[in-house]
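Structure in, sequence out. Go:
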């Protein structure tokens, strides 16, 4: 009787270990498939600004670095209109502050070609304040 009880306990432990190993392997596979370990390493070893500049780019593809540069250099206390010409989502949301007004006189143009800029914006209506590669910070002439 006592031997039967011990055998039942051993069998129950084996079944629990098999289930736990299967669960552990499923969780481990999911973590590896989603690059969780690499992503955690990148987050822990790089600060927010360097990660945003690396993935958002300075001027292209999204122009995060250029918009950050404009806000810091000119110490703007209003929201800017941002137009991206590279079929990418607007990055206005990264810098938008609900407590600030939108200033329609200033525009940031991301990824615009020089030819397209000259045809559309480089006339008497707009003045270039800052230019880096294919990114422009312009002001409407009022």
């Amino acid at each position: 009787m006592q031997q039967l009880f011990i055998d039942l306990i051993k069998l129950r432990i084996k079944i629990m270990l098999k289930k736990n190993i299967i669960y552990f392997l499923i969780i481990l596979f999911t973590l590896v498939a989603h690059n969780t370990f690499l992503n955690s390493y990148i987050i822990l070893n790089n600060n927010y600004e360097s990660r945003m500049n690396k993935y958002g780019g300075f001027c292209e593809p999204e122009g995060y670095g250029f918009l950050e540069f404009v806000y810091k250099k000119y110490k703007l206390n209003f929201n800017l209109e941002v137009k991206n010409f590279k079929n990418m989502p607007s990055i206005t949301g990264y810098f938008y502050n609900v407590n600030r007004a939108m200033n329609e006189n200033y525009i940031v143009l991301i990824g615009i070609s020089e030819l397209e800029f000259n045809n559309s914006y480089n006339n008497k209506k707009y003045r270039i304040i800052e230019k880096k590669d294919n990114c422009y910070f312009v002001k409407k002439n009022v």
